[in-house]
Amino acid sequence: MELREFAEQVLKSPSCMQKIQPVREQLTDQAPGMAEKLTLPAREEKLTFGARRTAPPMPAIPRFSEPAQRAIAHHIMANHELQALEVMAWVLLAFPEAPTEFRLGLAEVMKDEQRHTRMHMERCKALGIEFGSLPVNSYIWRQAMTFTSVMDYLAGLPLTFEGCNLDHSLELEDVFQSVGDLKSAAIMRRIHEDEIEHVRFGLEWLRRLKPPTMTDWEAYETHLHFPMRPSKSVGHQLDEASRYKTGMDEEFVSRLKATHTGSIRK
């Protein structure tokens, strides 16, 4: 299957199940085609982006003892993973001139996003809520519409959104464990491990594409568009060890710590 066909399947198919259908055949990039920048992903009616304040917020931690509230949490995270998948497909269509090695690597990350979406959907259903029965927001997608280059994507999605999930995945693992939901906790641990590799991928390509005179941090900060900013890449508790596992150097981690007002997990 050509990368373009894969990207179009994810971005232009309204069916969520088609978007997250595993790719069995080998992906190639022999016909990337012309640049195409869609303003919205195709989505079935129940998953169409709603008004900003209609989607439910992440439940307060004390309410995670209730199965229905844990289901809401998984519903929210399934939509986050689905948006990330759609943004990655958008990048493949928007920047066909990007290096083939990057594009093929991004497709491998997309396969993880498909799996993450499925995991959250299945857990959401097991806890009593069908994915799509609640309104969903478009926050990640809207921020991605400010990307004008692959470098913007690297700074915005892998290094900021997925960077933040290095922390949130661990925080939610702890919360799920505290209420005895070991299946949900295991999902968050698996996603955390994948996020380390996703951030590593983003950092590797930032280094390969940035001007040699720029530091990693300078390149990262330069390619963030307001309201995106470095502090958005950190959760409530910054997990320092995870950042070093991604390959971040001491300067990058120190700069992140300087933007963070919460606690630090060593």
Automatic annotation (TrEMBL):
Superkingdom as given in the UniProt entry: Bacteria
Xref: SUPFAM superfamilies: Ferritin-like
CDD domains per record: Ferritin_like
Alphabetized PANTHER family for the sequence: 3-OXOACYL-[ACYL-CARRIER-PROTEIN] SYNTHASE-LIKE PROTEIN (PTHR42782:SF2), SI:CH73-314G15.3 (PTHR42782)
Protein known as: DUF455 domain-containing protein
